[in-house]
Amino acid sequence: MCSGWKHVDKGERVHFDYSDEELSFRKELKGFLDGELPVYFEFFDLPQQERFDRSMEFVKKLAARGWLTPAWPVEYGGSAHAPWQQMILSEEMIAHGEPRTGQYMNVNWIGPAIILAGTPEQKEYHLTRISNGNVVWCQGFSEPDAGSDLAALRTSAVRDGDEYVINGEKIWTSNAGVAEFCFLLARTNSEARKQEGISIFLVPTATPGVEVGDIDAVVHPGAFHHVVFTDVRVPASCRLGPENEGFTIVRKLLANERVGVARYHRAAGYLDRVAKWCDERGLLDDSSVIETLAHARVACDAARVLVYQVWDERTRGLHPDESAWVYRTAAVNAERAVSEAAFKLMGAEALVRHSHADNQFEWATTAGIAGGSYEMQLNSLARVLLGTKG
């Protein structure tokens, strides 16, 4: 098991270290990734279909080694390892361009949501496919008038006998162009208070009435989609958990989404590339260059320490909502700090397409939006600190 956080000097300092088993796992994983992906390859720069095909081929190899869902219970296709292995996976995958693409979402919180609230039939069908790497999902959360404020959503699901009729639209939906299922939030009680009256539906994207369109953005093509639901009929068996209690389920799993992508690790990797660029040009003798690099490195290391706290709390059976919000804001700051450092140090070369600065700018731009906006995380923290609700 993980040695975790060790308290020394009467609790005045905290030390973290990995167990021998975890160090061995990271070494074996890195060796596998170096063999499969000998050169750092930015999967997100590929055309969407090619990215999807390569990812599906790759994740099946992970699944065959028990590395796709290592922290899941054995009965659901996992290996029952401690959550730290999942964190190690997150760091090493993003260091190689996140070749799982949308699969990280399946593993980190869509699967766990089904484990938490699914029927035996839902678990048997969906969890087997996820743990085998045979399916891609998207999440239907944000809407044109309800971005990170999920409770303000308007997409409706009206019960009609043994079916629900869904109408509404979702926006900024990643992977919708290739996803087979949508993890959809819809309002099933329009008279309840905004955090209530919401249900979860596991909707096949091939269902009549589901239309998916691309959204052009400064980031890679296919990153975002607009999904419209027009009189979409799904059987009641597609609902996950009790009616009107979807927000409660999602809230329990949102911390998994906040920490699912090791952004600090990828940002630190780009910072290393910027530092190497500076070294090759003899710039590291300049104290201002060193100071700029150090400032960004501290931001990355701060985010790393904070996410380790989240994983530690999860390992001890806690629900690290507040810790996940703090980490999320720190991860955004790290992404932005590396982007700012790259532009400051690389000058005109930073403006070249696919320069280190250009690539990092894409990540830094989306960092404050994906997985819940930066501002909403701050609002959530403020409510906790001020003792307010809403």
Automatic annotation (TrEMBL):
Indicate the segments forming the Acyl-CoA dehydrogenase/oxidase C-terminal domain, all copies: 244-385
An annotated Gene Ontology molecular function: flavin adenine dinucleotide binding
Q: Which cofactor does it need?
A: FAD
Q: Which Pfam families match?
A: Acyl-CoA_dh_1 (PF00441), Acyl-CoA_dh_M (PF02770), Acyl-CoA_dh_N (PF02771)
How far does the signal peptide extend, from start to end residue? none
Q: Which UniProt keywords apply?
A: FAD, Flavoprotein, Oxidoreductase
Q: Which residues form the Acyl-CoA oxidase/dehydrogenase middle domain?
A: 138-232
Gene Ontology cellular-component terms listed: plasma membrane
Q: Where is each Acyl-CoA dehydrogenase/oxidase N-terminal domain found?
A: 19-133
The entry assigns this protein to a family as follows: Belongs to the acyl-CoA dehydrogenase family.
What name does this protein carry? Answer: Unannotated protein
The top of its lineage is: unclassified sequences, metagenomes, ecological metagenomes
